[in-house]
Fold:
Amino acid sequence: MFVTSEKLDRRELLKLRQRAIAERQIFITDAAKPGAATWSDVSTVFNRFEAIVKEGVNDIVSRYRRSFLGPLWSMVGTIVFVAGFMILGRFLFKITDNTYVVYVTCGVVFWTFIFSTLAEGAGMYTNPATASTGFHLSFAEIPIRMMIRNLIVLLLNAPIVFGVSLFFVRWDNWTSLLFIPGLILVVSVLIPVAIVLGVFGARLRDLPPAVASLLQFGFYLSPVFWLAESIPQGAPHLILDLNPFYHMLQVVRKPFLNEIAPLEHYLILLGLSLGGWTIAVIVFARFRRRIIYWA
Structure:
């Protein structure tokens, strides 16, 4: 049931909502003014945040339903990768620097988080499994719910990252905890980008596979397996400076190497976050009313 709330009072909206629940329909409210509709969606996220978190957890549980290990399969996959890389690197590539194992492990885990967030975000408004949030649909809830799912998967892999880092890197202080503000900055950049991709992905169905392909290209341009220090300063280093994934990886990986990421990475991500949210709010307010028709 899709209604415009501008011409209805609160009592009429309540009656329509109750009727929609009785008829097992999704109840969607809208307003003629885009700003009012946007604020309504944002306020719903704050009011239902606990419920959104539970829905994100349920998404992970339902994804691994009737599975023996359930969500722990994500951890098993990371363990297999780390063990295989250590064996292959030691005996085939003759890698003797143990910190490189930490470097690659952190790079793969956090790149997987970035990739899954953006790739899933581009199609989040067209995925029926994530579009329904009960009997009230808020388009602002969907990206938050999607981010919670990916954060849960990242949290499952966190013990492996900590374990590998503790085993191969000597921690002299609490530098590793700096990954927390780094992760917060990364999340604050990814959410608005996912919102913009999701809105246009609902209209352009070629966008989600195009985003996945571009992310594959970004993987090779980002220091996941190769060392960022191997790029000489000057014009070649501009490839890294203009790569936002490079700055994201640095702020979350450096702490596990017992190093402090340069301040410029934090400032660049802060600027990207502010610019991204500005664009996301404009795009969401402008095209929010069309998402239901596009999807």
Observations:
- The CA atoms of residues 219 and 289 lie 34 Å apart.
